[in-house]
Amino acid sequence: MDPVQHLTSLRRAPVQQRSAERLVRILDACADLLDEVGYEQLTTRAVADRAQVPIGSVYRFFDNKRALADALAHRNLDRYADRIARRVGEVDGTDWRGAVDACLDEYLTMKRTVPGFTLIDFGVPAPPTEGEPHANHQVADRVAALLAAHLGRPLDDALRRAVLVGVEATDSLLHLAFRTDPAGDEALVQETRTLLHAYFAHTFDPPPGGQDG
C-alpha cells in the first residue's frame, strides 16, 4: 500500500483499509487522466468517474483539483525517494558519481514510465500557494540527506546548497531534453550527466593533497 495517510493536502486521512484503497484509486485515476487530457482540463468529476467512486469520495479527501494534484506530486516524491534509496544503496559508499547517476537515472525512469509524471512530477504546474516550499527545494532536501548518509558527509548548508543547485540545473536541462524528444533526447541527457559530474566534483572530490575536508 502506498504511504498516503501523511499527505498534507488531504482534508481527512483514511482510517480503514477500504478507504485507503479508494484514495489510491483516486490518485491513480488522476495520474492516468493527466496523460490523457492535461492539468487544465482535469476535473474532479472525471477523476471520480475513472476511479469508479462517488464524487463525494473525492471531496472527502480533497478540497479541489489543485489539492488532488498536489497529493499526487507528494506521492511521486515519496516513491522517488524510496527508489533512489534502493539504487544508491547498491553503489559503493566512495562512488559519488555512481550515487548521483542513480538519482538521475531513477528520475528518467519515472519520467518515462510513471503515469502523470510528465505533467506533475513533484509539483503542480501552477504558482505555489503562499508559504508552500517549491518542489525543487523538497526534492533537494531528500536527495541531500540521502547522499550525505550514503557518502558519510555532513548534511550542512554547503551540501544542501550544492544539491539544490544541481536539482535546479537538472530540472531545466531535462525539461529541454523532453521538450526536444518526448522520450528524452539522449544527447541532452548525457550533457546533463556531464554537467552534474563536473559541478559536484568541487563538493565530493577530496581537495588537492588527498585530504578529505
From TrEMBL:
Residue ranges of the annotated DNA-binding region, renumbered to this chain: 43-62
Superkingdom of origin: Bacteria
UniProt cross-references to PANTHER family, sorted A to Z: HTH-TYPE TRANSCRIPTIONAL REGULATOR RUTR (PTHR30055), TRANSCRIPTIONAL REGULATORY PROTEIN (PTHR30055:SF151)
Domain HTH tetR-type: 20-80
Protein name listed in UniProt: TetR/AcrR family transcriptional regulator
Entry keywords, A to Z: DNA-binding, Transcription, Transcription regulation
InterPro entries: Homeodomain-like_sf, HTH-type_TetR-like_transc_reg, HTH_TetR, TetR_C_22
One Pfam family named in its UniProt record: TetR_N
Source organism of the structure: Streptomyces koyangensis
